[in-house]
Amino acid sequence: MAQYTTTQFKEHFLTLGLNLKITWLNTQLENMKNKNNLSFDEIVGNLFHKMLISDLGVISLGLLPQNCELLNEKQLEKRTILQVNRMINIGTKHKKKEKETKHRCLKFLLTDGIQEMSGFEYHRIPTIKIDDDNNIPGFKVVVTNAEIRHGHFLLSQNNCKKLGGYVQSLKDLRMNQQQL
Q1: Which of 58, 79, 148, 154 could form a disulfide with 71 if both were Cys (CB 3.0 to 4.6 A apart)?
Q2: pLDDT of residue 171 exceeding 80
Q3: Cα(56)–Cα(62) distance, rounded to whole angstroms?
């Protein structure tokens, strides 16, 4: 693994849409030191898996434009990995806001690790179901070419792809709220 530098991994993740902190990368690479002869792609795969189960607020320096909540009629052209901290169905009554319905409009609270921004399901994203056990708070999505209106992403299956993952603290918080 000595033949690869932290900078090479940082640059690779920038092309994927994530601006990782060097300290997090160094820690993860140090933890992999005992795994000899890993290829670059194998290390990237391990780092990607760790990223999926990490809080972007801890590991990311963000990629969204500054003050993105003020943008209107702009397009996020850069590929950007975002974390879904919360998701509700605003297209239904309050009692069903966390249930899957035929007619839905999902609202997402998203973060790049630095800024929070909301997004709306402009057209249905079939890989994301609100009551699916795989949509644990903190799951990651990659957003490309999303339109921004009045500070909100307009999301569809054409510009938002689910990557998976979770953040344990958000998962625990959600479980505590459901028990109330």
Answers
A1: 148
A2: no
A3: 8
Q: Where are the beta strands (DSSP E) in 90-177?
A: 106-111, 116-121, 139-143, 146-149, 152-155, 160-164
User: Is the Cβ–Cβ distance between 21 and 61 less than 8 Å?
Assistant: yes
The predicted model scores a pTM of: 0.89
Spatial separation of the C-alpha atoms in residues 163 and 180, rounded to whole Å: 30
Domain ranges of the chain: 6-52, 68-179
Strand order from edge to edge, sheet including 139-143: 74-76, 146-149, 152-155, 116-121, 106-111, 80-89, 139-143, 160-164
CATH architecture designation of domain 68-179: Beta Barrel (2.40)
| Tens-place pLDDT, residues 47-77 | 999 999 999 999 999 999 888 888 888 988 8
